[in-house]
Amino acid sequence: MAGIEVLRLGHRIERDKRLTTHVGLAARAFGASKLYYSGDQDKTVEASIAKVVEDWGGEFEAVYVGDWRRLLKDKHGEGYLLIHLTMYGLPIQNIIDEVRRLHREKNILVVVGGEKVERAAYMMADYNVSVTSQPHSEVSALAVFLDWLQEGRELEKTYADAKKIIIPSARGKTVKRRG
Ligand code: SAM
Fold it and tell me: How much of the chain exceeds pLDDT 90, in percent?
């Protein structure tokens, strides 16, 4: 399998702080290596994600992009498959086999929107994909898409450099700390 990155469009500094951070945390936990975000630049989002990476491990980072169209063009030029998640798109269950096949060779950039997504995103995407044809959220759509893409393999992911590791338990909270 090739790599996975995520672009979150239209971040608004006042209203989306938690939501964009959660898009980043879902992207990381479900196997992506990077979050790009456009709209307002927000250092607190970048810092929140960096703090999680410092404690829980891995290489994930959040990177601001001023011109998301340019990013899509560049990624397309680098051979990435561009997947835009939207409730108006083709049902995930109908296209995921094809996407998985392509992902054996190609990196994927998954694009999720905010309040309103410009038409250019629909036009530039290789696939517009829906996770149900009902409105919900960028976090839920991203998590389900990444899980279906990887058929659950991401659930087993561990981080060799983690400072905090959870020892799963039936009740209570057990966290092992290193470093
Ligand atoms: N009208 C928007 C749309 O085009 O999907 C809904 C905006 S929603 C608040 C923000 C983002 O969540 C969307 O841009 C999309 O990436 C994601 N999203 C929401 N519902 C979805 C669904 N059913 N399937 C795929 N993505 C969805």
Answer: 98
Cβ atoms of residues 1 and 81 within 8 Å: no
Superfamily covering domain 4-177: SPOUT methyltransferase, trefoil knot domain (3.40.1280.10)
Domain ranges of the chain: 4-177
Q: Is the CB of 141 under 6 A from ligand 1?
A: yes
In percent, the amount of the chain with pLDDT more than 70 equals: 100
Crossing angle of helices 138-150 and 92-103, in 10° steps, is 60
Query: What pLDDT is attached to residue 179?
Result: 74
- pTM: predicted TM-score of the whole model, two decimal places: 0.97
DSSP states of 26-86 = HHHHTT-SEEEEEES--HHHHHHHHHHHHHH-S--EEEE-S-HHHHHHHHHHTTPEEEEEE
Strands 4-11 and 108-112: parallel
In tens, the pLDDT along 39-60 reads 999 999 999 999 999 999 999 9
Handedness of CA 24, 125, 128, 10 (dihedral sign): positive
Residue to mutate (ligand 1; options 12, 136, 144; most atoms within 8 A of CB): 136
